[in-house]
Design a protein that fits this description.
The chain is α+β, with helices and mostly antiparallel strands. The chain has a single domain, classed as Peptide Deformylase, CATH 3.90.45. 25% of the residues lie in helices and 26% in strands. It has four helices and seven strands, in the order H-H-E-E-E-E-E-E-E-H-H. It has a five-stranded antiparallel beta sheet with strand order 1-2-3-6-7, with helices on both faces. Strands 4-5 form a two-stranded antiparallel sheet. The longest helix has 16 residues. The chain is globular.
């Protein structure tokens, strides 16, 4: 059994793949082999997410079309939750249980761009851990949003796909205004502090 500590340390920072790259806009392959190659990928994803100061990262964001994401994200009680999910399926509340929260959302693959997006205030994510064991995560607060955002990535959807044309245009303008601060291989090369 692989401990979380083994997976969150010792990774190599990889460049983050940007929106517009084909791997970002296509469904991923399911994880079928829970081996050293997967564990290396997960370690690298944790290292990359940390270097980019993100709260979640999908494999597509490091150019790999595999259904796995990592997260290190506060929940609704502001407790940090850390983990890895392979082959995630998100279940959202329906009917009277469905409460939408609108909040600014961003994506490491579109650095500098933020836009308001309404998502449910809690979500359940089921999948497998890095050893293939079944897991279930109950997300509240930012974690609920993160679980939905990262699972979307693995279906080939970026959060801009959920925005109106007008809001998406503003999102791209915000990103374009700051894009020069992010080198092509960011976060391998750190963000520039000024032009």
């Amino acid at each position: 059994m692989t401990s979380l500590g083994e997976l969150t340390t010792g990774g190599t920072v990889r460049p983050i793949t940007r929106w517009g790259t084909p791997v970002m806009h296509a469904p991923t392959r399911p994880v079928t082999e829970f081996n050293d190659e997967l564990r290396t990928l997960v370690r690298d994803m944790f290292a990359t997410m940390e270097a980019a100061q993100g709260v979640g990262l999908a494999a597509t964001q490091v150019g790999i079309d595999l259904a796995v994401f990592v997260y290190d994200c506060p929940d609704g009680d502001n407790h940090s939750q850390v983990g890895v999910v392979c082959n995630p399926v998100v279940e959202l509340p329906e009917g009277r249980d469905r409460v939408l929260e609108s909040a600014d959302e961003g994506c490491l693959s579109l650095p500098g761009g933020y836009a308001p997006l309404a998502r449910t205030d809690h979500s359940i994510c089921r999948g497998q851990d890095a050893d293939g064991n079944p897991i279930e995560i109950h997300g509240t607060g930012l974690l609920a949003r993160c679980l939905q955002h990262e699972t979307d990535h693995l279906h080939g959807m970026v959060f801009g796909d959920r925005l109106s044309t007008r809001t998406r245009k503003k999102l791209y303008q915000a990103h374009d205004a700051l894009a020069h601060l992010y080198p092509e291989d960011w976060p391998v090369t750190p963000k520039r502090t000024s032009a």
